[in-house]
Model the fold of this input.
Amino acid sequence: MPPAFIHCCSFLFTAALLFLGTGCAQPPPPVATEESFWNGDTMFGSPSVRISLSQQRAFFYKDGQLAGMSRISSGREGRNTVTGNFHIIQKDLNHVSSLFGDYVDAEGNLIQKDVDTSKDPRPKGARYDGAKMPYFMRIVGGTGMHEGYLPGYPASHGCIRMPGFMAAAFFRSVEVGTPVTIEP
Done:
């Protein structure tokens, strides 16, 4: 065979190996759609979560393979969700906020809605009724993923809200220590 042909074949073979080697290193970013989905119950492997604040989506992976995606509502302006690399540090199925909620009277009637106990003094005779945050997965400080209201834009106090069925799927699939990356 002519040397030019051998050189060309060698180059193509090397290029193919490089392409295949780098293609497996990082899964391609998932395409965000309007709907959430979960396929993780039939998948195995180490879990990890990636949250994209710009896309308002949370992506769940098992051994690097996309297992589910959820619409989210992250922290609103002034209460922005933190970014960085974290781990799940607590799971609480029936979590109640110690900071955000309502003041109610003895019969449970609303006195003051959407209070911040660090700023809003409790009226005389009122009791605090903390916001319910089912399927709470604490990531850092007071920030976590949980079931909550999704208006279609960032609206939380810093947490990552998800539809109930997705919060339940993430909750049953993560353990304390599961890596979580939160990206702008």
Q: What stands out?
A: The chain has one domain: 30-183. The domain at 30-183 is CATH 2.40.440.10 (L,D-transpeptidase catalytic domain-like).
